[in-house]
Amino acid sequence: MTKDPQQMNCHEFQAQLAELIGSGQKPGDHPHLKICPLCRALLADLETIAEAARQLFPIQQPKEELWERIESAIKDEEASS
Amino acid sequence: MPNSRFPKQPQDASTGGLTPVTASADPASPGVSGSPIDDEVMIRAQAGDHLAFAHLYSLHKRRIYSLCLRMVGNVAEAEDLTQEAFLQLHRKIATFRGDSAFSTWLHRLAINVVLMHLRKKGLHLMSLDEAMEPVPDEGPGRSFGAPDLSLVGSIDRLALERAVAALPAGYRLIFVLHDVEGYEHNEIADMLDCSIGNSKSQLHKARLKLRDALRTSLRGERR
User: Considering the domain boundaries, does residue B205 fall inside one?
Assistant: First the structure.
């Protein structure tokens, strides 16, 4: 039985947080957050991490020699087939 | 096949190296169509044109290498996996039927290569099954911390990269697939043969671990 969101403590709210976030709902609208600065801070941090992951990871350049390795491996495969 | 048909080093036709990876901007992300140039080159490569295959490599090497690097967190392994992905591409390219964008197909092929690799490594990494197990000391009760140590506006790329690289393999895998590569939970569950609920739960735990690591880093900077 699901507890009334108005009555949840931090532990209960955080136990549901993965599902709240993952299901595409707006966890920021949850009643518990209106009264709990700690859980508000937690949610803000998690949203910041997800946003940073989307924006901050650079595209990396492989070493030029990698193509030579691939080319050589392809040639070996073709020679053996 | 004559060796001379391979170019010495394929001309780099990919986009700028600082382009941020977002689901909407990444041509290799799921659900995003390939370009007409991609399609033309791919058709020639399917017909056995090695120059076209080399061009495909130049078009996709950064995305595939970056994906491998994020998923395993190690340059040497990422190079090996990139090589294996393109070798598999060479073997299988004739089977591509255009049901999805070529870049999406290649992206998925590369992910499968990495997943196979991680499963083969077994003891050296936390297995996906282990990663799916609840960890008693990581319950929701410990996810507090001082609200004044907020990460909002405080995360830099290097700190995040370091924190992601330090994640256990199972957590890193799901975090990279969802938050970096833009896959949905149902797609991840399908790839990893786990439930959608597990995917959500593991992603959440991965973010909590990253939060701990980033807050520790931030606390150190402020001392």
Answer: yes
Q: Chain A residue with minimal CA distance to B80?
A: A66
Dihedral sign (CA B79, B81, B83, B85)? negative
- Which of A23, A44, A78 lies at the smallest CB-CB distance from B150? A44
Question: What CATH number has the domain bearing residue B215?
Answer: 1.10.10.10
Span A19-33, pLDDT tens digits: 888 887 788 889 999
| Token pair recorded at residue B141 | 């009760």
ipTM associated with this complex:
0.79
B61 contact residues in A (CB cutoff 8 A): 62, 66-67
How much of chain B, in percent, has pLDDT values that exceed 90? 34
User: Do B34 and B107 fall within a single domain?
Assistant: yes
Residues B21, B71, A54: CA angle, nearest 5 degrees: 25
